[in-house]
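Late entry, evening session. Most of the bench is empty. Finally got around to the prediction I had been postponing all week. Sequence below, unchanged from the version circulated by S.P.
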Amino acid sequence: MLKEVESLEYKDTHSDIKKICCYLQSIIQQQEKLFIIFFIRGQLVDKSYLLSLFQNAPYQEVGLLDENSAKQLIIKPAEGLLQYDEDTVTAILELSAGHPYFTQVICFSLFVEAKIENNWKVTRADVEAIVNKAIESAEAGLAWLWDGISIPERVVLSAVAEAQKIAFEEKQSFPEEPLTLLKERGIIETDDLIQSGKKLAEKNFFDETQRRLKIELVRRWLVQRHPLHKQILELEILEKENVYLLSEEASQLHQEGKNYDAIELYEQVLQLNPNHFRTLSPLAEAYLEIENFDKALQLYERAYKVDTVRHQEGYLHALETYGNKLIEQGDFDLAKEQFEKVLQIEPERILTQQKQRETNRAYLLRQRTPLGAIAAVAGILAFTIVGGIGFYKWSTPCPPGQQKVNGIFCVAESNNISRGDRTLFPTIPNQYRDQGIEAFKQGNYKQAVNLFAQAMREDRSDPEVLIYYNNARARRKASPFTFAVVVPIQSKQDIAKEILRGVAIAQNHFNVKGGLNGQLLEIVIANDANNIEQVKQVAQQFVDNKSVLAVIGHYTSEATRAALDKYQRAEKPLAIISPTSLSSLLQSHIFFRAVPSNIKVSQQLAGYIRNQLNLKKVVVFYNPGDQFSNNLREQFTKKFERLGGQIVWKIDLTEPKLDVDQKLNESVSQQYQAQAALLFPDVQYTSMALEIVRAKANSNNPQVQSLKLLSNSTLYNDRTLKERGNTIEGLILSIPWFREVPQSKNFAQTAAQQWGGSISWRTATSYDATQALIQALSPNPSRTTVLQRLRQVNLSPQQTSGNTLQFTPEGEIQMEPILVQIKDGKFQILGK
């Protein structure tokens, strides 16, 4: 029996196999009693060739099982143990399509789960609940499938999976054609991609429509492990050797200002590989510099489609530049179109709003102005746009925490960032801290160490002082490693302290042990005030400060998203690891997360409601305008509906004069019949969410009182318990870390001794984030080496707040959230 013939696929496939077959045929002719059974993939060699060579030997194609055989494979192996009803069998077949391997993987996962739960009656909901475990179990087989196809085939396969996902979410009956979807994402349709679709069809990956994968489990695996937005980047690898030298030479010419020569070489790169995406932005920039706006905008728009986060600012800047040029030329209609495109993407872009208003005024003026005066109007407006923006900036006060430069531009004040030269918590009195700061500013680090030590004894709960103490020690040693941490001191001082406490403990542990080769760790603290403009300014300052190796932060998903673009567009990209941002929309090759994302939180909540509470109808309270809140709502909806649940009503927490009593009563009315309410507030609306909890507890409506209330970590803090008392009894929360679970107790106790009281989950996750960065250090580190080494981080529970810390290829932490419930006035573990 010959089974591993496919191992030759990566060599000179057909010639090698034919040589082997000819040799075996000669042996068979000599040995009458020798029998050979081939197991071979159909695409490796022509079937007619084998039949001719072996004189029409019998053969059997192994493919998808027929319905009856598949049902037998499901039921027979565990007959007498597992009970499957017809709908459950159908659910399994919907996932496996009768493929023997995937059918067995699903059934094995169901058996393991049934054994754990001691529940031997399997339902459709159980099948849905084990999909992720089945995918993990099938990884080896799926990896073999993936490794056996080319890069263009992989891209087409991911495109088909993505098109199906979109069709499912938008309730479309027919998925989009994969090559059309790729075109919408900025991909040029090459012959390789066209032929790849045909090859995949020949290999029976698709159903009869050629737009759906036959095996649903494979589709889900692709969406999880090989999402289209990441997979398309592999197209850059094609023609890599030929492209590299051209790209380097073009880049050098561009830097020297030789734009026309650079453009010629960049265009040659795109001729070799039309989907070399790294070339799009510099080529667009070169065209913009020579004022070929049509080509520049075409390329910028394509780059934006490929990676909206990375290329958004470049595209918007090009549109604005073109708009300004059109104003100079007096073409107000076309200028207006450019500014409208900008505001469609970023509605709150203040300068563009101003330009659009000026353009509209000019347009109206032109309607009433004689033709001879239009040129003068254009000239005046060009001055107005440049000078008017200056006046607008000059006459408008800067937001808190900013200052004007040259009387026009608002930038972050230097007092938003500190290594020890100022306090970012001026309302907290501590004379020794203030004296230590003066010594630090003068470079007297020995005295600063002593004074900060006294300040710590004065107020042991202040993490800023411990960080400055260690910074002074690190400066005294010279050549410290430098990380930055960004917190919302101005808007959320308590939360800022919680995050800083985790960072401070990790820094202190590292420095107490002598650092790495005698070099200690310095932490730069920044206050972004959770204000988007200030976030961007702080991020840019860290990008420009070459001593900063990586960033811990930012607090909210909105703030992190705003900063992410700055960090990844830097000449030397900055790794960023967030201990608090849960939105699954945050994705980048430089982004890591020290906390389970909204995907895991929503999966846990949905599974608990459907499988443990056995509830089907829920109402969701959320903020549609907040990235984190809306993303959590979207992820929960997907997971809950797949388990057979229904979102009967979505309620906007930002609704003016929101009457929570009325909303709760309507939720349980005959119209909606909600059995549970999900509270997904952002940080600005936690008080409103708690008001809903209070209203439920005080309601006279028995149906409202019976509502189950569930939420996430936004409502998890000791202050909630103290201030709300019995009104929040029974509230269930999905949280990233809990001090009462066995693996967390050691860290919780150590931290409590350090700070003189219990710590929050944010302290734990920020500690983990800092520990991960510390492990990514090496002798003579750079931003590049830290980013590379972060991917290999592997911390034991003894090195973290209690859990093993590793990152997936996408930068996600491999950790599950924890369910807790408020019982008897305290948080208690509920289970996963």
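Two things to note before I forget:
The longest strand covers residues 481-487.
Residues 308-329 form the longest helix (22 residues).
Will write this up properly tomorrow.
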